[in-house]
Amino acid sequence: MSSPKTALNNGVIACHTCHNLTKVDINASGPFRCSRCHSKISSRKPNSLNRTWAFLIAATILYIPANIFPIMTVVSFGKENSDTILSGIIYLMGSGQWVIGLVVFFASIFVPVFKIVALSFLALSVHLKLKWKPKTRTLLYRIVEAIGRWSMIDVFMISILIALVKLKALATVEAESGAIAFAAVVILTMLAAMTFDPRLIWDQVEDIRND
Question: Domains (ranges, CATH) in the chain?
Fold first, then answer.
């Protein structure tokens, strides 16, 4: 069977910076530069799977202290109260603030876990050279890439709360180690999504067609 008409087969590489298609000599050693913005371009991201796995493992490890340790401590009228992510969600829902509680749950629990599981599945599928629905897996990657930044909502809420409370001098609010660990998890999962190359999903499909 003839080779599918892909950018790589036609000697064209897409720039990750400006998305311009640049004609290159695939047989050359490189490095290649984008004809528009002159950024470095490559047919596949170097060491994509290794870097993705490294970021995912680090994010998974840090997600444990992010949920065990408190994310903030509030001292008001001599009373000190520390909350983890989960206890904060329970408190918000228990006090009738369901909308805010659901937003925090989505940003702090659902999104990070979904990103870690989804990216692990994608990386594992490429590693095992699975042929299962490449379009679906590519769509899954796009979803992961799009929602990743929303995990920072929780960190932004803590920052705004600290600023407002200090401004009004009503109480003392301090970010705790859990917030630092959670911010690290968000950054690491974003880096994992950035380093994963979805074009690897289609390499196995092309190999099968060429057999």
Answer: 1-43 (no CATH), 45-210 (1.20.140)
Tell me the C-alpha distance between 145 and 151, whole Å. 12
Report yes or no: 197 and 45 within 8 Å, Cβ to Cβ: yes
Burial label for 154, CB within 10 Å (0-12, 13-18, 19+), is buried
pTM, 2 dp: 0.76
Judge contact between 113 and 67, C-beta under 8 A: no
> Which residues are 81's β-sheet partners?
74
CA 164 to centroid of chain Cα atoms: 29
CA dist 48 and 192 (Å) reads: 9
Distance CA 81, CA 192 (A): 34
Q: What DSSP line would sit under 119-171, residue for residue?
A: HHHHHHHHHTT--S-HHHHHHHHHHHHHHGGGGGHHHHHHHHHHHHHHHHTS-
Residue 211, pLDDT above cutoff 80: no
Residues 32-67: tens digit of each pLDDT: 888 778 777 777 777 889 999 999 999 999 999 988
Sign, CA dihedral 102-107-108-112, equals positive
